[in-house]
Amino acid sequence: MNSTGPPPAHDRARGLFTGVGLGDAMGAAFEGKPSVTELALLEFERSNDQLRYTDDTLLTITVAEHLLERARRGGHLLDEGELAAALTCAWTREPWRGFTDSAAEMFERQNSGMPWRDAAVSLFHGQSSFGNGGAMRCAPVALAAQSAHHAAELGRRTASVTHTHPDGQEGAAVQSCSAYLALHDCGGLDPESFLDKLAHEIHEPEWVRRLHAVAAQLGHRDPHRAAEALGNDVRATHSVPLALWAFLAHAEAPVDVVRQCIRAGGDIGAIASMAAALAGALRGAAGWPQSWLRRIEGLTRLHDLGDRLARLSA
After folding, report:
1. Which one of 95, 138, 278, 308 is least enclosed by Cβ atoms within 10 Å?
2. Any idea what the CATH number is for the domain that residue 291 is in?
3. pLDDT digits (tens, 9 = 90+) for 197-249
């Protein structure tokens, strides 16, 4: 942390949302490329072109707005049916944001009148999705949660709207709980302690094993080695651990968190978005370079959501 102590809560909230949009938009620019050279990355960082976000950020915004609306009405913090409808409306308004074919198919079924639970289960021969879609949008719940346990619970519930597969839900629990721990870290980040606290809230044996695998990679800074060990595709069991590694291994420099995700390849946009959300939650919005911030689409909106959820948290 800096000499003046941890960033204030509102800056951390802004940092979380900024990280979501920044990691998403920067990563999306390299999506599908088998490798990224240092020169290509440097030229991209020096560009003035706008960074347009994808469905990852759009659905994160939708989750945040749902939490704020529920708080305004004074009801329970989360309503899965209302959230399902809100996510479907977001897809209907902006289907060009980069939704996967399976996500578009599910939202189309809901639009046609299929109950959201049935639509979620109907994909992949009735197995539902074990992808990272639930994890990539769940970070805002950390700002509304009362504890790390509560954050994990809310993460699972937000994911269940579209991902009934246990891995899809547990990936969201890991990401939302990680975001809560990053937001509330006040003594300087200790990666091993962070993972211990996270494992305390995550009870699926396979996911505990994944967290141990992340710990084993913390001494290494090579993103290709981390991707080979942890995975880097759309499966929650692969992408969430890699995002967690990028954050914990490079938390002292948020820009390196994003750079390492890009270098690692795979599902770059989602992985970079998740990792940058954690880095922003820890370091605050002030941790991001102004040259990057000027390029982000919708930065004012992201900051506003951070401010409003920070007040809700307080």
Report:
1. 95
2. 1.10.4080.10
3. 999 999 889 999 999 999 999 988 899 999 999 999 999 999 999 999 999 99
pLDDT of residue 3: 47
In a domain, 258, yes or no: yes
Q: CA-to-CA distance for 185 and 280, rounded, in angstroms?
A: 12
Opening angle at CA 151, ends 55 and 172, nearest 5? 40
Average model confidence (pLDDT) for the chain?
A: 92
Helical axes 223-230 vs 254-264, angle rounded to 10°:
60
Rg (CA), the chain: 18
The residue assigned the tokens 């299929």 is 114
- Structurally, how many domains does the chain consist of? 1
CA distances in angstroms from 308 to 43, 57, 140, 244, 290, listed in the order given:
35, 17, 11, 26, 22
pLDDT at 154 over 80: yes
- 8 Å CB contact between 116 and 80: yes
Q: Is 74 left (phi over 0), alpha (psi -120 to 50) or beta?
A: left
The answer to whether position 3 is within a domain reads no
Question: Is position 2 within any domain?
Answer: no
Q: What pLDDT does residue 159 have?
A: 95
Among the ranges given (70-74, 81-85, 186-190), the one the predictor scored with the smallest mean pLDDT: 186-190
Q: Which two tokens stand for residue 115?
A: 């109950």
C-alpha distances in Å from residue 230, one per residue of 168, 243, 267:
16, 10, 13
Does residue 1 lie in a domain region? no
Cross-strand pairs, 51:
296
Q: Is the pLDDT of residue 45 over 60?
A: yes
Domain residue limits at 60: 9-313
